[in-house]
Amino acid sequence: MIDYLHGAPVSGSLDVDWHHGGPSPKHNSAPEIQVHAYSEHTLILRQNKSVHFEAPFLFLLFGNDRALLLDTGASADPAHFPLRATVDALISQWLLRNPREGRGGYGLLVAHTHGHGDHVAGDAQFTGRPLTTVVGKDQGSVATLFGLTDWPHRKGELDLGGRILDLIPGPGHQSAAVVFHDRHTGLLLTGDSLYPGRIYVADEAAFTATVERLLAFCEEHPVTHVLGCHIEMTSTPHEDYPRGTTYQPDEPPLQLTAGHLRRLRQALAEGTDDPQGEFLVVTG
Fold it and tell me: Quick check: is 203 in a domain?
């Protein structure tokens, strides 16, 4: 049994050069899915921009009883985006390093930061996979499976087998959005609610309430990094890449901080973009 509580939050590495596409997508030799080990039990995946311009980040977290795959990317076809094959191989490798004699089968939970197409397209690749649950994309399915009563006001918990995640309802960008906080690493996984890029707000009142909930959570819990699901900014403040860009050679880091949430609240209150230009807010 792995002790996910001792020493938490544990440190991890974000010393990584993310694949950012190429001048010619047809001649991009990078793999369809980049895999980076943040820690021994925490993997960050990124879809190649030459496969789909959204290039979302996905997260694979291992517990003692099951793994969590958070989001399934922007492409459905396994010939171009072999997500299940990649995840199956990663789970097999983890189980070889962490044998589970006498503990039965190892499960997989496939969930989403929210239900937009560039985060759920690969769901069907996991249809029929043994010991696998794929969470629905609508708010009702999400709330029911995770026990999130009185949506969106109450938090929930997800236990992967000694590894606990806090679940914070996060509507505003999309109605079924959830923010995941991993107690083991301290990572706050915000989906499309905050990342270095354009933050699209569909329901401003709901989104503002989500930001307030996240800020209150950060005041009471250790948060090491805030990780969204995209990089769309350049390293120059206030300059982002146009939608549809497949080559982003001047990307800033993925990781943000709780301080960016405070600046997001300020931007929403003032009706302006982030004063430091590390993200842009689009409402309406």
Answer: yes
